[in-house]
Every structure is written in C-alpha cells, then in structure tokens.
C-alpha cells in the first residue's frame, strides 16, 4: 500500500537512542526513513536529509498574543534543535506555524500575528536556527507586507543554511470552504512558482490548499523542483480521505519528492462562531490530524506521523531518483504542454466553447 | 480509507440473486455500489447506473486471430448482457478489449486487430448491444484509420443508447515505459478532450497512460465531463502502487466521477521478447491486475474488482454530486487558469527560463 522503493518497502532509519529518548520525554513523535535510488555510473548519489515539523499551539488562544507566539517558538525551537542534532539539512515547518489557525473566527484581531517576511520574529528565529545548524529552513508564516499597503499574504520564507533569507513564495490558491475563511484575510499570491536553489537541492513550496490544484504542483516541477513541501493546516472532517492521495499523486505526476505537513491538535477560540453548516455556534476548529508524510516519485511513501502529537519526520532522499523516474516513465516528455497551453488560452477567454459532442440521435 | 459519501461509507447494492448466480457460474466478479448526493430544492437527483467491464483474453495468442477476437467478443457479450439485465445505462470496456495487449512484442502482425472506429467488428458488436439494452457503450479499440494512410490510433468509440456512433476520442499520451512499446504502434491522439453528451450524462474518456497526466484529466473537466472513464491495461510490477492514487486524485481535483478499468490476466505470446531490464527473454507481459473501481468527487471510492478474474462493476452515480462538490470546494473558481495559460505559453518556448531563485550566499 505504501509502494516499493528500489524493490523494497521504504526503510526505517534509526536516529539513535538519545534523540528517541528526548522525543519521548518531550512528547513528540519522531520517525525517520530512507528513500534510495539506483546507483549511476556518471553521477554520485545525492542524498539529502530532509525534515518535516508538525506542531500544535502551546498556549491557550485566550493568552496574550506575545505569550502564544513565544510558547510556539519555544516548542518549535526544541524540535528544530533535535532536527539539527539528527543532521537534517532541509527542514520545513507547517503553514502559519507561529500562530493559532484563527481564520475560522473571521475576527480581524488575529492579523496582529502577521509579520514581515524578511525581519519578523519568526523569520528571525528561523535565521538563528538555520545558522546554528547549517540548515535550510522553510518558514511558512502569515506575512504583513507594509510596503504594499499592509497587504496580508500567506507566505513561505526560505532561509538558507547560512541564515540568510533566499526568498519567499506566496500561497497561490486561497480556499473558501468550511471554516477556512482564508479569502477574508489574504489574497492570491503574486510570486509565481519559484524554485529555490539551496545548498542541498532545488525546493519549492506548495502551500496548503494548493495541493488540490494539480497545475500548482506542476508549476514547481516545470521550474525544476526536486522536493516540494506542502505545509498545511486541515481538519479531519473536511479532508482526511484526500490526505494520502493528493501529495502522493503529485510526487508521481511530477517526478519529485513531496513532504506533506499538517498541523496537529484542536484549537479552541474565545468567541463562538458558526461554520455555515447549520450547526450551532461553537468555539473549536475541529481536529487538525497531523499525519505528515513523505512521498517519492516512484509512488512509494513513508508512514505518517501521529494524528494527535507534535512530530518530526526525517527522511534521507536520494535526489537522483527524480531524474531516474523521469527517464523511466517519461511524463514530462509525453506531456504535450503545447496542447494544454492552447487549451487554457482558449478556456480563459469569455467566448470559450467547451468541446462537446452531442448524441445527434437525441 | 475509502472515504465517506454523504457521511457514510459507499453502500453496496444488491443486483439480485439471479445475476449473482450467473456471474458465479460464468466465473466473473460482480459488484455494485451506490454514490449519493445531498437532496436539492431546485434539481431532482440525477442518478445514472454506470458499469465497468474488465476482461482477460479467452483464446491463446497462438490461435488464429479471428478465433481470438471471437472468443473475447463472446465473453464480453455475456458480461454486457448481464450489465443490460442489471439496468446499466452507461458502460465502459477496457482499453483495446478486443485483442491481446501485444505491444510488448514489438511485432507488427498484431496490428491486424486494428479496425475501423465506425464500422469494425468490435464497434458493430457494441452497436448491437447498445441498441439491445438501450445503453451507452464506450468501446476502446485499436483503430485503423484508412482515410489517413492506415494510421493506427488507440481510440475510444462512444456508442449512443440508440446504437449510433456519437464520436470518438484518441489517446492523447502514449507511453514508452517497460514493455509498453506503444509509441512503436500508434501516435499521439488528435481529437483534443471531447466530452460526449449522451442520454445519461456528459462523459469523457482518459485512455490508460493519460491517467498519469493531470492536465489530461483536467481537459475533460474543463469541457464539462461528469463521468470520466479510464480504460487501461497495466501490470502489477510497473504500476500497482499508483493505481489507487491517480484516478481517485483526478475525481477529487476535477469534481467528477471516475471509472478506472484495468485489464486482467497474464498474456503469453508465441515468440520470446526482452523487456529492456537486463532479464532473459520471456513470453509473457506480467500480470494485468484488474482492480477496477469507481472514485467520486467527494474523495470516496468503491472497493476494487478482483485482481485475477473478469468482472463487472456497477455503480449508481448521482451526478448532482459533481456540482455540489464544485460549489463546496471551489477548485474551478480558485484555479487561476490565466496564470497557468501564461506559464505554459512561456514553458513551450525554446527560450524558456525556469523561475529559480539561487541562494546568493552560495
């Protein structure tokens, strides 16, 4: 069910008893795996150790905002330090990891958590940790863009292994579904599909709801991504049956690795809100089910992190697998992009006519 | 794991003891399910009974071709008659159902099986059965296009419920992987992404390898398909871990139903051939693992038909679910097609430059 990597199930890797003990003591899930590629004659293996962090909030949503943020910073620092000790080279945090996922409330005070992508407190923490561990950190935050009229964006800031900000990507597709009133808070991203060339490989970031959009995944692939992260925040009742399908499909269709991350825990807010589903007003957002996992271009995947616990998932990815699978299956070569460029060009015109062949006998 | 449809697992439906007994006697798998949609105020439910047929070959590949074809025709007639008795309104057969999947051999004599899409023997059989049962039949064959210099195509002919040919679709994406030497035999289709408006709904056909191409699925969606069939022929070693992922992802991403059909059985050929994998020459193509299933836009799906037996899978699909899910999730509205039209337009140019942001500190 989890596929085969070089003819075998994806293998578990030990990170040693010390890290396992400290994860158990601090009550977060820690798992590690290895994806292999076939040996090549002209290229050495390109193995990168990659980590995914899923976290809950660590102070009640009624606490002062500065305490709420600090509590999450402290927890994430602890897990990122463990990742550093485990030799992780590229790490991705979850969507808006530094705050409660308050968009269910439609209250605007929560935008106080939005911060500068380049100089805000969460980016500063990530820069410090990136420098300390020589690690690339993908830092998905709520961004306040002061230079453009206080526009709010949902942004992933990519911090290089020298602690510098390499660049950022803004979430392309914004949901209007259930309690995900995100279009109330921020706009469709304007940064395209950038691929960040880091010391450890080319990475892209498909933020949350973008995982439902196959062309969003494809955009990062066309720009050369070898690993695409999907930092998310989604709840069980809405999306859990889709969760094992979409990131894995993206890894297959685009011949790259995917690291899918989901927030964890149940977040309760001070004021009751309705959910547009006829049910009484309530104060919680449902359960963020965690279950972060890696998927590979050969259709193999790791097991998931826990449904109800913070966690760190580590995987060694031999990036050579991407080109090997591309050459084996030929999806890029056979994709007929010209046909689709033409189709989409027609589709977006107001006078688009669908290609429908009606049964003439009806 | 198979998701939830209107809050419950997809329900099994009984087709009655007589059909079950005749399926058991004739040794084919028979299963039936029902997908529901929420009641609406302004539209009645639009329930269509849809069937998928998976079949093995029924004469050895050493038999005279006319006998091979007749043996399959006889078997498929038996199963289609059962589908008719079960009240199936739209039925899809598997890819190149009328012949062994001989493309592993790279021998050209097998193209004798190619036939006229409009007037060949397999289309004639489907027209007869469509008229008899008042049923739409999707008839995927190897097509010989005499009018265009004997071009061979991999084609799905859509036969209306009055026995007329509504039109055809030619496979858009042709594999060059493993023993699937299909590019040796036929070319990329030239029929776009037609949607066939039948008496029972709007259908599209994504033939086999096209399931790996998200934009191919999308093309049928943009043209208005409510059910897209994926008649396939694929073997276990190559693709089995992908099989439950891709069609299901397509149903989710495009807010339509998918009927995924795979050939069944192991086909052995007269002359040994190699597979480009360093192994000795051999005479069989591996195991076609059947496992046909339906997937719905709400991420639910049916169990699969058997891995090693012919089969008929029936499902009642309330087509209202497509629009309901489209309105709930909003994937079409949030898809930003203009951005992708522009991206693909750039990508297909020779001077395309990927959007790469290189870490300036490296």
TrEMBL record, chains A, B:
One of the GO biological process terms: beta-alanine biosynthetic process via 3-ureidopropionate
Reaction equation(s) it catalyzes: 3-(carbamoylamino)propanoate + H2O + 2 H(+) = beta-alanine + NH4(+) + CO2; 3-(carbamoylamino)-2-methylpropanoate + H2O + 2 H(+) = (R)-3-amino-2-methylpropanoate + NH4(+) + CO2
Pfam families in the record: CN_hydrolase
Annotated pathway: Amino-acid biosynthesis; beta-alanine biosynthesis
Keyword annotations: Hydrolase
InterPro entries membership: Aliph_Amidase/BUP (IPR050345), C-N_Hydrolase (IPR003010), C-N_Hydrolase_sf (IPR036526)
Annotated CN hydrolase domain residues: 48-319
MF (Gene Ontology): beta-ureidopropionase activity
SUPFAM superfamilies: Carbon-nitrogen hydrolase
Enzyme Commission (EC) number: 3.5.1.6
Similarity section: Belongs to the carbon-nitrogen hydrolase superfamily. BUP family.
PANTHER family: BETA-UREIDOPROPIONASE, NITRILASE C965.09-RELATED
Protein's recorded name: Beta-ureidopropionase
Organismal lineage: Eukaryota, Viridiplantae, Chlorophyta, core chlorophytes, Trebouxiophyceae
């Amino acid at each position: 069910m989890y596929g085969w990597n070089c003819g075998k199930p994806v293998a578990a890797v030990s990170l040693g008893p010390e890290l396992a003990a400290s994860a158990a003591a601090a009550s977060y899930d820690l798992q590690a795996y290895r994806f292999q590629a076939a040996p090549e004659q002209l290229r050495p293996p390109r193995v990168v150790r990659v980590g995914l962090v899923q976290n809950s909030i660590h102070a009640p949503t009624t606490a002062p905002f500065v305490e709420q943020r600090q509590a999450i910073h402290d927890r994430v620092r602890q897990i990122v330090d463990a990742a550093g000790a485990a030799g992780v080279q590229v790490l991705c945090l979850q969507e808006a990891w530094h705050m409660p996922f308050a968009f269910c409330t439609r209250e605007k005070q929560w935008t106080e958590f939005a911060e500068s992508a380049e100089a805000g407190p969460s980016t500063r923490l990530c820069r410090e940790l990136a420098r300390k561990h020589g690690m690339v950190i993908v830092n998905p935050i709520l961004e306040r863009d002061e230079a453009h009229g206080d526009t709010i964006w949902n942004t992933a800031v990519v911090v290089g292994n020298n602690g510098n900000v390499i660049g950022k990507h803004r979430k392309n597709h914004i949901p209007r579904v259930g309690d995900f009133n995100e279009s109330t808070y921020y706009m469709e991203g304007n940064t395209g599909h950038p691929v960040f060339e880091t010391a450890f490989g080319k990475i892209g970031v498909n933020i949350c709801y973008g995982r439902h959009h196959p062309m969003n995944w494809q955009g990062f692939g066309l720009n050369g991504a070898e690993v695409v992260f999907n930092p998310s925040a989604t709840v069980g009742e809405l999306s859990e049956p889709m969760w094992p399908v979409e990131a894995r499909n993206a890894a297959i269709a685009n011949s790259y690795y995917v690291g899918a991350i989901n927030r964890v825990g149940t977040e309760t807010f001070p004021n009751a809100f309705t959910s547009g589903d006829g049910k009484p007003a309530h104060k919680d957002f449902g359960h963020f089910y965690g279950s972060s996992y890696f998927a590979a271009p050969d259709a193999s995947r790791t097991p998931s992190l826990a449904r109800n616990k913070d966690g760190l998932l580590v995987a060694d990815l031999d990036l050579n697998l991407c080109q090997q699978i591309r050459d084996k299956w030929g999806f890029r070569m056979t994709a007929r992009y010209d046909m689709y460029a033409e189709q989409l060009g027609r589709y977006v015109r107001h006078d688009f006519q669908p290609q429908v062949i009606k049964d003439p006998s009806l």
